[in-house]
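sorry for the late reply, my laptop died twice this morning and i had to redo everyting from scratch. anyway the thing you sent over, i finally got around to it. pasting the sequence first so we're on the same page, its 417 residues, then the predicted structure underneath. double check i copied it right bc i was rushing
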Amino acid sequence: MRAELQQNYDVLIVGGGMVGATLGCALAANPATAQLSVLIVDTQPSPSVDTAAPTHLSFDSRSTALSAASRNLLEAFDLWGAVQEGASPIQRIHVSDQGRFGRTTLDREEFSESALGYVVENAVFGSALATRLDSLAQCSVCAPATVQSAVPIESGMRVELQQDSSEQLSIVETKLLVIAEGGRSSLCEQLGIARTSHDYGQHALIANVALSRPHEGVAYERFTNTGPLALLPLLPVEGESRASLVWTLAAEEAQAISELKDEQLLARLQEKFGWRLGRFVRIGARAIYPLRLQLAQEQIRPHTVLLGNVAHTLHPVAGQGMNLSLRDIDALVKELAAAVNSESVASHDIGSMALLQRYVDQRQGDQGLMVAATDGLTKLFSSDAQAKVWLRKAGLLSIELLPTLKTRFGTRAMGFD
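ok and here's the structure:
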């Protein structure tokens, strides 16, 4: 999609994936920020609205775990109505430690919620975003295109774009540059924004599996000696019960396991997980990713902010990455809205360092907690050290037996804390 580029935009979003596109929709949904002009630039072609909506879900559709609080945010962004068509509700969460005593369960009825969370098909999420963006007069999409450079100027950032295969560069200016490119950002490298990285020595094997019995909306997080193994409930395809598998493996065994024949891999999975979901009937297309904790050393600069994985890439344990990004989006939009509504002319600069610093200060606690929680859980539950084994037993039993602790744990799991 080639946008008819203007010379100036209020907000320029680099990256049209789930985070960048959601930000565009969130800006349009807020009455104050709906008046801002927005340009989204992405290296991948944008799906046309006519073909964006899937006529049916495929067995191998990838998915994203969303908390109950994230559902509320998507409702506020005018997205949930379309997204929920591909959402499988999580009625119960079951957490256990393989081969050891101690487990905890959370049930939606304990918290008077219709669901603890949802597992959303990415195809449906993407379709909802594409359709919504296409309907927004103030939001344009330029794709495929790449950002060649971004240079600070007095009023914001001057950005050079190259559309598709065109040799001619387009120059636009923006008051606020949002970098939401994902885990690897060439633009961040160009701007000298460094990131710290910790390699967990683990890989995640991701695939969908068919089950011999209905999952009944239960999400399982089973900790093994190589790391967490999650099975999340998906909508059935042609009557076949499905679950999304995220299996954390030691780096040295990940490739060998991923290359096993289907029946061999399913046998290994059955051995690790057990029979709570019956027999694993088949497994779909596989993907394998190295796992790292990566944090941007700077989330903001004057007229520049980082969102999504480029700001913080977490371990997938507990599936908190997108949920954290949605809360970041909500906080940023509210700060921008406050600036637009301000009676002070000086406060109208939506890219000012003062505004962006308020955003970072507000988000620091939640981001720090999520980083510490996912990192700590990974290290605690990926070890057979006796002290950590006993700590895991005590922790799971405490959550199960102490109502106050269980309430706090469940509230955090749903994103309401």
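The chain has a mean pLDDT of 87.
thats about all i looked at so far, will dig more tmrw
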